[in-house]
Design brief:
heterodimer; A: 370 residues; nine-stranded mixed beta sheet; B: alpha/beta; six-stranded mixed beta sheet; binds adenosine-5'-diphosphate; binds magnesium ion
Chain lengths: 370, 258
């Protein structure tokens, strides 16, 4: 059965009760709103691999056409996965590294989506004991962009992975379905300040002993943006560790939703997990939700905590900055930047952090200009 | 005798928060180059006085005036007061996780002393010298503002800001309380060199006479229940430390005034 038929078959519509679609129904994410439609002749976006500094990427890492074989995928949402697959037949890529690939220079994948509708599949085929940082930027003036990332992080690898959403308008649908190898350390960050609507279903599975996962978000929404991120973390092996820290700053009439699903399977002894959602409300019309959920089927866990905090800018922080001469506008943007920076700074090295801070700073400037 | 315009002039200040009256008529006049101190028990209104001079939005001013070099501070917003040279070293400095000390200092200096003062060797030189004087390692600059700082680090950081911002009026709210004796000496030296023989002035709020032994204030004001009940010279601090506030209260009751 081809993927289009697969999609049509499952698209008997995800139920609103299915918590993935509770806050943003599929109808609103689908390019036309008619969920049986599968757009034809969709072009893939332009994609290129280079160093973050703009120079050529080093040997040992490559971006090739195809779908990776032998990569076990964790379960994921069928509707969004099959939909992206069915429109990205001609845009399948593998990011492949040799084992022990190592780079001090952060790597950049630039995805430039300019056609009306774009879809792309990217398989991460990261070898064992690799160590590098990779930033993926999604940009362009497309009206609809679908990115499906699947793959595996090799045993003992230590990867910082950051996805930056800078799409100028339209909808972004992101699906991550990534599994971690034994003793792998995977730090995956999302920086989002683009697209009018984002629906992300980000799932990570720790099916082998000793893996270590950090999922980090710095989300900036403004105007009438609607940004919905679902993060699912599956502990399915002993001695696995995960941390989810999600900060969203929400202005204008925008709405941000962060839902977390933490699953600790029976047998994951010594699992250690926590999830934290923190929303900063910048205007009275902005709305933000952070909803952590837990499903713990193992008794011998180190910890499974969660926390949520919602609120406006702290008055005491404002007064402190005012007393140091910051104008109201400067103080506000400094505090928004600080709030987003407290998660941004956890995403990668100093090099990556400097780059991300500059990018975020110019986004905040746009915000004040409005 | 006609004296020149005082640096700070607080006249009959009454203030509170909602229905709760906190200050019941404060009068303080600080001349250029002078250092004054306010002493008083916990809850007497010291921090409230400092916050009101800085322009904290929570308090209602019922009566009175506060002028700095003849400018009516009550008409200015907190950031405008800062630009006019008012500096408050906070009793409990606010943490701002995510905001780096280095960036914060630069922005603050640029806002108060102008863009040129925050650029190049001028800024870096003063920063380096001041940090050295306060015994702060340069790694401090990449930390987040007051985030995870020890009590002493917070106080040193407030003083660092004072040294960089070069205020006309420095208000130090219990800056001595988190510091050891060396720290207090450093701060006292800093205050003396920033104020004595200049047009600037300082108001030191403290519980203890320790810092005053090093600063030698021109005047000491004693605050009880939101009112200045006594103003005297430096010896008043030692009398208070020896005999306590009860002694002063009894003395006032029996004499009518000091
Ligand atoms: N923000 C506030 N809200 C309500 N009451 C306050 C506030 N700030 C100060 N107060 C009250 O004002 C009085 C004086 O407090 P404060 O100025 O902090 O005293 P001090 O600094 O002398 O210890 C206290 O009774 C305190 O409870
Ligand atoms: Mg106090």
């Amino acid at each position: 059965m081809n993927t289009i038929n697969k999609y049509i078959e499952v698209s008997e519509l995800p139920h609103r009760a299915d918590h993935l679609w509770r806050y943003t129904p599929w109808k609103k994410v689908h390019p036309t709103g008619k969920v049986k439609d599968v757009p034809k002749e969709v072009k893939g976006p332009k994609i290129r691999l280079l160093n973050l500094s703009g120079t050529e990427s080093p040997p040992g890492i490559e971006l090739i056409r195809g779908v990776g074989e032998d990569i076990r995928l964790p379960e994921s949402d069928d509707v969004s996965t099959n939909f992206i697959k069915s429109i990205s037949e001609d845009s399948k890529w593998i990011l492949k590294t040799e084992s022990k690939f190592n780079s001090n220079e952060p790597i950049l994948i630039e995805i430039d989506a300019v056609d009306e509708i774009n879809g792309i599949q990217l398989t991460l085929d990261i070898g064992d004991r690799c160590e590098f940082e990779i930033v993926t930027i999604i940009k362009g003036s497309t009206n609809w962009m679908g990115l499906l990332r699947t793959g595996r992080i090799g045993n003992g690898s230590n990867i910082n992975d950051i996805t930056v959403g800078l799409q100028e308008r339209g909808t972004l649908l992101r699906v991550d379905a990534i599994s971690l190898g034994r003793d792998a350390e995977f730090r995956t960050g999302t920086v989002s300040s683009g697209s009018e609507r984002t629906k992300a279903d980000l799932r990570y599975r720790m099916g082998e002993i000793g893996s270590n996962l950090r999922v980090i978000g710095s989300i900036l929404s403004r105007d009438s943006m609607h940004l919905d991120h679902h993060i699912e973390i599956q502990h399915d092996a002993p001695q696995t560790f995960s941390r989810l820290s999600w900060n969203a700053a929400c202005g204008g009439k925008s709405k941000t939703i962060g839902t977390g699903m933490l699953k600790v399977a029976n047998g994951s002894k010594g699992a250690d997990a926590s999830q934290n959602f923190h929303n900063l409300l910048l205007s009275k019309d902005a709305e933000a939700d952070g909803i952590p959920e837990l499903e713990v089927l193992e008794n011998e866990v180190v910890g499974c905590g969660h926390g949520i905090a919602n609120g406006p800018i702290d008055e005491n922080q404002l007064f402190y900055l005012h007393a140091r001469g910051f104008s109201p506008m400067d103080a506000k943007s400094a505090l928004i930047a600080a709030f987003l920076n407290s998660t941004l700074s956890k995403m990668g090295s100093m090099k990556v952090h400097d780059w991300l801070s500059k990018m975020l700073y110019s986004e905040l400037k746009n915000m004040n200009a409005e | 005798m006609e004296s020149k315009t005082p640096l700070l002039e607080i006249v009959n200040l009454h203030a509170g928060i909602e229905d709760n009256k906190i200050l019941n008529g404060i009068n303080i006049e600080i001349g250029p180059g002078e250092i004054h101190a306010i002493m008083g028990r916990n809850g007497s209104g010291k921090t409230t006085t400092a916050n009101i001079i800085m322009g904290h939005p929570d308090f209602d001013i019922e009566e009175g005036k506060i002028n700095l070099n003849g400018i009516n501070l009550l008409e200015l917003e907190p950031w405008e007061r800062a630009k006019n040279g008012v500096f408050l070293s906070f009793q409990y400095p606010q943490a701002v996780p995510g905001l780096q000390v280095g960036n914060f200092l630069k922005k603050s200096v640029a806002s108060i002393r102008g863009a040129d003062a925050a650029k190049g060797v001028n800024f870096r030189g003063l920063l380096k010298d001041s940090m050295k004087e306060l015994n702060m390692p340069s790694s401090f600059l990449s930390r987040y503002v007051n985030d995870g700082f020890s009590g002493g680090e917070k106080k040193r950081f407030e003083i660092l800001q004072m040294m960089l911002l070069q205020p006309k009026l420095a208000i130090l709210d219990e800056t001595d309380s988190g510091l050891d004796i060396d720290g207090i000496k450093t701060v006292a030296t800093g205050i003396n060199s920033a104020i004595r023989g200049t047009d600037s002035g300082a108001l030191i709020i403290t519980h203890y006479s320790r810092i005053l032994d090093h600063v030698k204030p021109d005047k000491i004001h004693v605050l009880i229940d939101g009112k200045i009940v006594a103003t005297g010279d430096a010896s008043l601090a030692n009398d208070l430390e020896e005999n306590g506030y009860d002694w002063l209260e009894n003395k006032i009751k029996s004499e009518g005034e000091v």
